[in-house]
Amino acid sequence: MTVGLVGGLGPESTIDYYRRILDRWQQLVPGTAPSVVIDSLDVQRALHLVATDRRALVEYLLDSTRRLAGAGASFVAITANTPHIVFDELVARSPVPLLSIVEVTAAEARRDDHRDHGAEAARRHGGAGERDRVAGEVLQEGGDEGRGGHEDG
To answer: Are 84 and 101 in contact (CB under 8 A)?
Structure first.
């Protein structure tokens, strides 16, 4: 299994996800390292496309998923929230399954809300806590929760 990360769209977030994946891997398989490929995109270009041209944003992100697939990624996660506004379009055309950090976080929030209702559950589902959950999902599920994985054409 090789994890593909569309990074750079929040450079600090990309670094944080990568470190958390490595940390979680060490808990699961001590003394080894996961196979991770990161394609770092230009955050300023992505933000411009979010504001002006969603179709071009899809193509920009799709190009990244293609590069990651070509590098051997089994599945891909995007390490920023904003690009998820075009997630469904990406899923439909991505050559590999995509793991939605938004869906993973929402599912965990629903599970927690059933356990402890209220503000405490909501507080835990942002920032670093979200990244811990996604890192665990990436490694424990091996991308099985991803959607898509279609050949473009």
So the answer is: yes
Nearest CA among 125, 145, 121, 135 for reference residue 19: 135
Reading the block at residue 115, the tokens are 């356990």
Tens digit of pLDDT for each residue in 106-147? 887 888 766 654 444 444 444 445 555 556 666 655 545 467
Task: Give every CB contact of residue 45 below 8 A, 6+ residues apart in sequence.
Answer: 60
Please say whether the beta carbons of 65 and 90 come within 8 A: yes
**Which is it for the CA torsion 151, 7, 18, 107, positive or negative?**
negative
Q: Convert the pLDDT of each residue in 83-107 to its tens digit.
A: 999 999 999 999 999 998 888 888 8
Question: How many Cβ atoms from other residues are within 10 Å of residue 148's Cβ?
Answer: 20
Place of tokens 């089994």: 74
Bridge partners, residue 36, by sequence: 3
Record the pTM.
0.78
pLDDT in tens, 51-80: 999 999 999 999 999 999 999 999 999 999
Contact between 76 and 6 (Cβ < 8 Å): yes
